[in-house]
């Protein structure tokens, strides 16, 4: 048996999220079906984390065990031949036995993208939240730095959260602006249900001038969902990258020549 990890990108628009659900139409279902067709095995995959309906991934990591002899250099290309066009395997890696994409993940980065043009861009509208008016990006930058460090993020999770603790650590935050596009990156050791989308809804209120940046610490300290802003739309959110400790990270480097 071999333990395999794959780095996967997908457009989540048509799916009910990553994780298998009774009603089907999930990214996990599509990958497992493609693996069965390719290898003849009923393989269950594990993802580094869930993404909700309509949320995308650039660097989702999955893991599974298989008896397939397909060489790693060919595995990604072979599996892509069985996958729908909105799911792409970017690389495949043979891992040490026991590797688990979720259990061994130590940090994740999400990107949230907004476009502020007068009209939506038809070519990017599936991957951007369209905000009709300009946003004060400098104010948003002043607000987001208050998230850094370890906090109880109860104000930034939906009622459906099943986590025992809402304490998480945010390692890095940044906001980049490229013309009408605004990209926010948040890296942490873990995220709560809808956490990034609620953070972004709150930041947009700051960018609109409804709230001052200095209000953010009070929102965090309240540990009360009603004290934060609205939940931003799913289409702007992308699971960007997942980080692993040594020795696992050395096996999960993407060869640029094979980066699809």
Automatic annotation (TrEMBL):
GO terms for biological process: tRNA pseudouridine synthesis. The active site is at residue 52. One of its GO terms (molecular function) is tRNA pseudouridine(38-40) synthase activity. Residues 7-101, 143-245 form the Pseudouridine synthase I TruA alpha/beta domain. SUPFAM superfamilies: Pseudouridine synthase. CDD domains: PseudoU_synth_EcTruA (cd02570). Gene3D superfamilies: Pseudouridine synthase I, catalytic domain, C-terminal subdomain (3.30.70.660), Pseudouridine synthase I, catalytic domain, N-terminal subdomain (3.30.70.580). It comes from the Bacteria. Its EC number is 5.4.99.12. Substrate binds at residue 110. Keywords: Isomerase, tRNA processing. It catalyses: uridine(38/39/40) in tRNA = pseudouridine(38/39/40) in tRNA. InterPro entries: PsdUridine_synth_cat_dom_sf, PsdUridine_synth_TruA, PsdUridine_synth_TruA_a/b_dom, PsdUridine_synth_TruA_C, TruA/RsuA/RluB/E/F_N. Homodimer. Formation of pseudouridine at positions 38, 39 and 40 in the anticodon stem and loop of transfer RNAs. Belongs to the tRNA pseudouridine synthase TruA family. NCBIfam families: hisT_truA. This is tRNA pseudouridine synthase A. It comes from Paenibacillus sambharensis. The lineage of its organism: Bacteria, Bacillati, Bacillota, Bacilli, Bacillales.
